[in-house]
Each structure stands twice: as structure tokens, then as C-alpha cells.
Amino acid sequence: MLCQFTDDSPQAAHRQTLKDFIPIPDIYSVGRLDRDSEGLLLLTNDNPLKHRLCDPKFAHPRTYWVQVENIPDETALMALRQGVDIKGQITRPAIAQRLTPSPDIAPRNPPIRERKNIPTTWLELVLTEGRNRQVRRMTAAVGYPTLRLIRVAIGPSAQTPKLTLDGLEPGQWRYLSTAEIEQFTMTKRPSPSRYFSRPQARSSKSQRRKRK
């Protein structure tokens, strides 16, 4: 589906959106997944919190499971960890590791592209920025195209518990608890020596979480 509530494209009659699954008005996604990806999506009616979670200066980690074509060597993994060039800009350092054993995940519908003579590998990537199609471009840059991409967790920081897909089936959603919301609103701000930050209002307005 599209990670938005409306679709004005010529194919609109054939493409599902969030509106097909969530009958709640005036909420918006905090970052998006492209239509070919899967996983965790936060929805909110709290604009200051949305800004806080989307602005790269706050460096909220996002965890992805990525199935790539072939078997990445240590050189490729190190490049992902150090940052790769995407359209003239170097990505922030990421956590990159192989998932061994591979995660037990239901087959994708529609299925991924498979080649009988080429193996695949599952990686775990943790990013602190959200450029357009960043994961796919990063793995392609080191020579291992992404076949399947699942966002499995979102911040709020490396020191506090993550929001995960646990307990959610595809298309399901739930409200965040007060404690979960506070994890985001009380996350330590970035150092002023590295980033300029403007104070953001705290709010406890209802947040929602949905799995695509």
C-alpha cells in the first residue's frame, strides 16, 4: 500500500492506501516506507513530535531487516558502517551485521525476485537518518541489491526500548501507551556543539502505530 491516506495518481483506483486500514481522521505518517517495503509505521496527530522524529539532527534509530542478493563480504559491511556515497552525499555511519540464522518470516506477497544460482542474505541495518529509499541505495552502492526490506523497530534512542512489530500482523494497528510516547518526548536532545536545535513542545496527544 501507499504510506499516505490519499492517492491522486492515475492508478489511484488500483492502489491501496492507509485509509483502507485505518478509519481515523487527521493523523499522518512519521516518515514513510516505499510501496515495495514492509514493516513498522508510526502515525500521529502531534506535529511537534513528528518533527522531532523526522528531523535527522535528533538521530532516532530505525532498524531494518534487509534481504539482499548474494553474500556481502566484510568489506561491503564495513562500507555500510562507515557511510556510502549516495548522489554526492555520504550517509551517516550505520550498524550493519548479518542475521544468522535468517529470520523466520512469512513469504512476501508478491514474492521477491529469485535466481536459482544466486544465494541471498539477511542483514540488519540500523540507521539514524531517513533519506528517500536510503536502504536500497546503500546496499546497491556496495554491490548487493535489496530484494526485501522490512522495518522492524523504531528508536527512540540506543539507550531506551524500541517500538517493534511484536504482536502485530500485517495491516493491524494499535495505540501507543503513555510510557511509549514519553520515551520519544523525553529523549535527550542532540549536543548543541554539533546541531542547532529549537525547543519543541511536549505533548501527550494520542499516537498510533501500524504495521504495513
Mean pLDDT rating: 80
Which spans of ≥5 residues are poorly predicted at pLDDT below 50?
188-208
Briefly note the structural class of the backbone.
alpha+beta
CATH topology type of the largest domain: Alpha-Beta Plaits
Distance between the termini: 7 Å
What proportion of the residues is helical, as a percent range? 10-25%
CATH 4th-level superfamily of the largest domain: Pseudouridine synthase I, catalytic domain, N-terminal subdomain
Overall number of strands: 11
Q: How many whole angstroms does the radius of gyration measure?
A: 18 Å
Main sheet summary: 9 strands, mixed
CATH class designation of the largest domain: Alpha Beta
Report the principal-axis shape: globular
Instruction: Indicate the proportion of strand residues.
Output: 15-25%
Number of helices: 4
Question: What would your notes on this structure say?
Answer:
- The protein has 212 residues and is α+β, with helices and mostly antiparallel strands.
- Helices cover 16% and strands 25% of the residues.
- The strands form two sheets. Strands 1, 2, 3, 6, 7, 8, 9, 10 and 11 form a nine-stranded mixed sheet that branches. A two-stranded antiparallel ribbon has the order 4-5.
- It is globular and about 45 Å long.
